[in-house]
């Protein structure tokens, strides 16, 4: 793959990381205005489902038809990686800063590594184990435990829940391009399923589904509430997933996944700029360790092990 063909793919992958990274700051602005995490998740998923309806219609018009197992994959994808991950991540953002919540979620490759080790009894490579240890050390710095900072246990548990859902996303994404449905179908159909699930959970009273029309604050600018919803749905979901799919097609899944780590950087910078969440030097050092650990694990393990 030459430089001329790689450069556009890298640009698209960075755009995807930037778009994904702003989901936390947009969500934080809505949460501060009185929205509940499930309501933010519903706004994100429902908005994405509407925006992805047109490209989905194009795919169906070209003659694509679901095969055995496709519907089940879409339902599971909507339940776990979309609905589950969004509710857990936004709930974590309600208790922790955007950067800390995202870094906890990003420990998913370590969780997936442990699950694969327990299932196959195959000992990971030394570099992989070093990466897992590095991630643990980085997480301790991110939580600032060494300096005696108070750790919000509820926020950490929500973040770990998001990590479990992200690990499921890695496993389910392996279906794309093989016998599974196309990525666009999986994302759009999953958004519809995820929206329905979050709405039902809210109506049933299992989780609070609260939204307000109060203005939100973004980088010192008082904006109407719908700016946050459009941002999290259009920019951080529809555009993010579509550019992510395009990046994988141009770069391949492994290189695209490495570039995708830029999401953490964009999330931290976005939270600093939009909602004034400034990380400490210790947390920045921990974040660097966690990202380096994930990169090391992805480099050391075969693609099919860590998606």
Keywords:
14 helices, 2% strand, two-stranded antiparallel sheet, 2 strands, 307 residues, globular, mainly alpha
Describe the 3D structure.
It holds the Pfam family EamA. Residues 8-143, 155-298 form the EamA domain. InterPro entries: EamA_dom, EmrE-like. There is one protein chain. It is built from 14 helices and two strands, in the order H-H-H-H-H-H-H-H-H-H-E-E-H-H-H-H. It is mainly α. It has a domain at 3-105 and 150-210 and 223-267. It has a two-stranded antiparallel sheet with strand order 1-2. A hairpin with a 2-residue loop joins strand 1 and strand 2. The two termini are 21 Å apart. The mean pLDDT is 83.
Mean pLDDT: 83
- Biggest sheet strand line-up: 1-2
β-strand number: 2
Provide the low-confidence segments as ranges: none
| Main sheet: strands, sense, barrel | 2 strands, antiparallel
Family: Belongs to the EamA transporter family.
Protein name: EamA family transporter
InterPro entries: EamA_dom, EmrE-like
Organism: Actinomycetospora chlora
Brief write-up:
This protein is an all-alpha fold. The chain has helices at residues 3-21, 23-32, 37-51, 53-61, 70-93, 98-105, 108-120, 126-142, 153-173, 183-203, 225-251, 253-259, 262-275, 281-300; strands spanning 216-218, 221-223.
Topology:
Blueprint: H1 3-21, H2 23-32, H3 37-51, H4 53-61, H5 70-93, H6 98-105, H7 108-120, H8 126-142, H9 153-173, H10 183-203, E1 216-218, E2 221-223, H11 225-251, H12 253-259, H13 262-275, H14 281-300
Antiparallel strand pairs: 1-2
Helix pairs in contact: 1-11, 1-13, 2-11, 2-13, 3-5, 3-10, 3-11, 5-9, 5-10, 6-9, 6-13, 7-9, 8-14, 11-12
Protein name: EamA family transporter
Keywords: Membrane, Transmembrane, Transmembrane helix
Pfam families: EamA
């Amino acid at each position: 793959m030459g430089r001329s063909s790689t450069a556009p793919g890298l640009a698209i992958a960075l755009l995807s990381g930037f778009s994904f990274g702003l989901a936390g700051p947009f969500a934080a602005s809505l949460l501060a205005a009185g929205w509940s995490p499930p309501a933010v998740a519903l706004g994100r998923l429902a908005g994405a489902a509407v925006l992805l309806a047109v490209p989905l219609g194009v795919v169906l018009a070209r003659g694509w038809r679901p095969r055995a197992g496709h519907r089940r994959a879409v339902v599971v994808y909507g339940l776990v990686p979309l609905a589950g991950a969004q509710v857990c991540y936004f709930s974590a953002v309600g208790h922790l800063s955007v950067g800390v919540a995202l870094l906890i979620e990003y420990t998913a490759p370590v969780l997936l590594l442990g699950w694969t080790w327990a299932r196959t009894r195959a000992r990971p490579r030394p570099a992989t184990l070093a990466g897992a240890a590095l991630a643990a050390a980085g997480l301790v710095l991110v939580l600032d435990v060494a300096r005696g900072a108070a750790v919000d246990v509820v926020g950490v548990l929500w973040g770990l829940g998001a990590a479990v859902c992200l690990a499921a996303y890695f496993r389910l994404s392996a279906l794309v391009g093989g016998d599974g449905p196309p990525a666009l179908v999986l994302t759009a159909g999953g958004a519809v399923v995820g929206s329905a699930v979050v709405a039902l959970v809210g109506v049933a009273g299992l989780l609070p589904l609260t939204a307000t029309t109060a203005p939100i604050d973004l980088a010192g600018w008082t904006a109407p509430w719908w700016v946050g919803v459009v941002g999290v749905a259009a920019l951080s979901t529809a555009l993010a997933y579509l550019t992510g799919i395009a990046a994988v097609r141009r770069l391949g899944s492994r290189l695209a996944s490495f570039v995708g780590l830029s999401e953490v950087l964009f999330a931290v910078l976005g939270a600093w700029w939009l909602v004034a969440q400034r990380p400490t030097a210790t947390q920045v050092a921990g974040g660097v360790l966690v990202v380096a650990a994930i990169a090391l694990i992805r480099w050391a393990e075969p693609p099919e092990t860590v998606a």
